[in-house]
Structures are given as C-alpha cells and as structure tokens.
Amino acid sequence: MNSQELLNIVEEFGSPVYVYDAAKIEYQYQRLTKVFSKVEQFKVHYAVKALSNISILKVLKQLGSGLDTVSIEEVQLGLHAGFEPKEIMYTPNGVSLEEIEAVAALGVQINIDNLSILEQFGTKHPKTPVCVRINPHVMAGGNANISVGHIDSKFGISIHQLPHLLRIIENTKMHINGIHMHTGSDILDVDVFLYAAEILFETAKHFSELEFIDFGSGFKVPYKKDDIETNVEEFGKKLTKRFLAFEKEYGRPLTLAFEPGKFLVSEAGFFLAKVNVVKQTTSTVFAGIDSGFNHLIRPMLYGSQHHIENISNPKGKERFYSVVGYICETDTFASNRRITEITEGDILCFRNAGAYCFSMSSNYNSRVRPAEVLWYNGKAHLIRQRETLKDILKNQIEITL
C-alpha cells in the first residue's frame, strides 16, 4: 500500500485507524508453504491471538489455513468464520477442565500442557484424541515476556517429566495423536530451533499413534530497516530434510504443522494516527498523537520498535522527535526518532501493526477503540466500526443511589 491510499483511508474512516493489507498476508502464507513444499502433509494453523477479526480469519481460511486457538472464545470465533472443528487446534494454558471438555465436545483438536489436567481429562475421556505440549527447555525469543521454552516457564510439560507423562497415558489408556512444542517468539537462531526439534523427535518415538508433530512458531519479522529476521528459507530446507528422515524412521505418514501469527499478519498492518500537538521542551520535541498505549501497547510492554513515518510529508527534512500518546502516564512510542518534519494535523504511520495491536487494545482512560479496515483487491473495506461511548456503557449497570 502507498501513502496516498493510507491517507485516503484516514479521510474516509477517521483516525486513529488500523489497516491490514490482505495481499501481504497471502504473500507471507505462500512464502511459508513454499519452503515446506516437499513435505506431503504440511499444515499452517494461524495463531488467532495475533489478530482475531472475523474478516482476517476468512482471508486465511481462503488461503487454506487452519487455526491455533488459546481460548474457547477463539474457537467459537473460528467456527463462526466457517472453519471446520478438525481445522482448529486448541492450546490453552491454565484453563479449567470444564473449558477443555466444552471445547472437546465441539470436535476441536485438544492440546494439553500440564500433567494434572491431562490425567483428569484422560480418565474421563480416554477415547478423545489429545495432543501434548512439551517444554523442551530450549530458550528462544527476543524478549523475556515472549520466551516460553525455558525451565521456569508455565507453558508445556517438562521434557524431564516424560516418565510421568507416559505413566499417565498408560494408566488412562488415552489416545495421543499429536505432539507439540513452542519455544517462544522471535526465533533468532535457526540451529537453536532445530536442536529443540531434535528433542521433540526423540520424544515422539515414545508415542506409536501420532498423526502430527506441531513445532509451534515464533518466526521473527523485521521491525525496522536492516532488522534481522528468521531465515525461513534456510529453516524450511533444514527442517524438511530432518522431518522426512524422521517420518521414514517412524514408519507412518505424519503431518508437519506450524502456528504462525505475527509472521502472517504483522507486516500487513498499519496503524495511522493524527498529530494533535508538536511540543518543544528544553531538550526534546514531542509529537503528541490522537492515540496511546490503549491502542498500541507493544513499545511499552515489549520495548518493540515500530517504524514510524510521516506520510503527510514523506519527502520533508528529517528531524528528531519523541512520539507520545494522550494517556495520563508515561506513553512513549519512540524516543528521539528521526522522522520527516512533523506539523500539527499530519498523519503518522506505524508499521508492523498487524499483530498484537488491536488484539491487545483496551478502553483505558475510557477511550474508544479505533476502526479496522481491510485493503482487499485494491479497495478499502471497513471490518470493524469505531467504538462509541455507547459501547463503553453497554454492559454497565447503573444503580439507584
């Protein structure tokens, strides 16, 4: 998408606004499936938590994707979007047995990540196929908050608990049809991931009726100029070779699955906001926008750097700005960032706003959430209306005092 198309969207739908380019989502999906083209049974399960708008789910369904879900509500969204239950993987963490049973009743693939629930579920429902999530204790991820494979992680069943896991399966006679791992987001070293994969292959040998091996995801995407990213082509080539060898060793066909979220939608997203005020202090020039961490919290929560450009003045002289929001506490998107000269009323574009931006937004400070727009086949489609005060009041109950 070009700057003028984005400015036209602001003109039509107002600011701030989230915009998603369907063509980029398709490009990323095809890129991933291409590198695993030699695997006969390859499946992508899109991680719904990254961006859960129904229209985005429909775009991915059209491409052939399944879904990776972490809550019963995400499962229900997937079913509403037209996915078959068998196309949906459910990998919760710390939820009740009752929720897991409710999802299983919908026919969705269950993935259990702790021994307690596994034993309880297996005792009551031994014939229901279950996948188990293993923690290989291999660290991946560029930030501690998104690295989930370490030894103190709450995610997954420790590889060191494998004897206990096998004992539960033997005692309950439950059916294990898949094995899964997730080391964390922002994979920086392909060989580290492949080392974790070897642990999963060794673990898989203990299960005789597997139908699939799920390697999670965590592919890193570039967030700024010359940023590093996961070399998916190298990764695909190496893992394909190893997977095909293991499949032959295992003695039956297996599906190789991944659960990309950020990889598919991050670069497809743009967040557009208007500059309310340019404020000069003794040492800093602030560009204050009509948004805050209620709409894009990743820079504050993860320290992530979203590239920011002034699409109202793309060829202007560059100056240094700190871009800040309107929230009543520290609310800084960028400090001392080089951006083309900004004047009040300009539109700033935040790149990589497709993943974990709207999905992590809130009504903090009683601010409404922005509209979402999908750019599809050269046309802007409104896929979520901007909230109003009525939405904030909708579920509140006034009492008589």
UniProtKB/TrEMBL annotation:
Single GO term (MF): pyridoxal phosphate binding
Binding site for substrate: 298, 302, 329, 356
Domain of life: Bacteria
Statement: the UniProt record of this protein carries the keyword Lyase: yes
Pathway: Amino-acid biosynthesis; L-lysine biosynthesis via DAP pathway; L-lysine from DL-2,6-diaminopimelate: step 1/1
Orn/DAP/Arg decarboxylase 2 N-terminal domain ranges (all copies): 23-266
BP-aspect Gene Ontology terms: lysine biosynthetic process via diaminopimelate
Classification via CDD domains: PLPDE_III_DapDC (cd06828)
Coiled coil regions in record: none
UniProt keyword Lyase present: yes
Catalytic activity: meso-2,6-diaminopimelate + H(+) = L-lysine + CO2
Residue positions, PTM N6-(pyridoxal phosphate)lysine: 49
Cofactor names: pyridoxal 5'-phosphate
EC number: 4.1.1.20
Domain Orn/DAP/Arg decarboxylase 2 C-terminal positions: 18-354
Xref: Pfam families: Orn_Arg_deC_N, Orn_DAP_Arg_deC
Residues the record lists as binding pyridoxal 5'-phosphate: 218, 356
Family the UniProt entry places it in: Belongs to the Orn/Lys/Arg decarboxylase class-II family. LysA subfamily.
Xref: HAMAP family: LysA
NCBIfam families: lysA
Subunit annotation: Homodimer.
General function of this protein: Specifically catalyzes the decarboxylation of meso-diaminopimelate (meso-DAP) to L-lysine.
Designated name of the protein: Diaminopimelate decarboxylase
Organism: Flavobacterium haoranii
Taxonomy of the source species: Bacteria, Pseudomonadati, Bacteroidota, Flavobacteriia, Flavobacteriales
UniProt gene name: lysA
